[in-house]
Write a structure and sequence with these properties.
The protein has helices spanning about 5-20, 95-110; strands at about 25-30, 40, 45-50, 55-60, 85-90. It has a five-stranded antiparallel β-sheet. Helix 1 (about 5-20) packs across helix 2 (about 95-110). The relative contact order is 0.20. It is of the alpha+beta class and about 110 residues long. It is globular and about 35 Å long. It has one domain (about 5-110): Aspartate Aminotransferase, domain 1 (Alpha-Beta Complex).
């Protein structure tokens, strides 16, 4: 049965692929406590990962600390040296235009 986390993951996946149609999607880090693993998106390096928790969906940008975030989407891992994340809880949605721009910035940074 689908729940809000499935819907959120589907939306984020669609936006990543809209922003970068040539992104490579893989599932990594399968383990007994997370048999579905973690979806990852790459293009000339890791763009982001998409993790599901009981209370949130977390999209982590590998080089998020180096990305412009004029819309203020990043709300997690703000003290991390390299990465930044967006936590979405039930009922929350990401600004699709700002998210697509963030993904495009991550791809451009990987290519530079």
């Amino acid at each position: 049965m689908s729940d809000w986390r499935d819907d959120t993951r589907s939306t984020l996946r669609r936006l990543v692929l809209e922003a970068e149609p040539e992104a490579v999607e893989e599932v990594k880090w399968r383990k007994p406590t997370n048999p579905d693993g973690v979806p990852t998106f790459s293009r000339s390096g890791l763009i982001c990962t998409l993790e599901t928790y009981k209370d949130k969906v977390k999209v982590t940008f590998a080089k998020g600390a180096s990305l412009p975030d004029p819309a203020g989407l990043f709300n997690a891992s703000l003290d991390a040296g390299t990465r930044r994340a967006i936590d979405l809880r039930e009922g929350e949605v990401v600004d699709p235009v700002a998210f697509v721009e963030l993904v495009r910035s991550a791809v451009a940074l990987n290519a530079s």
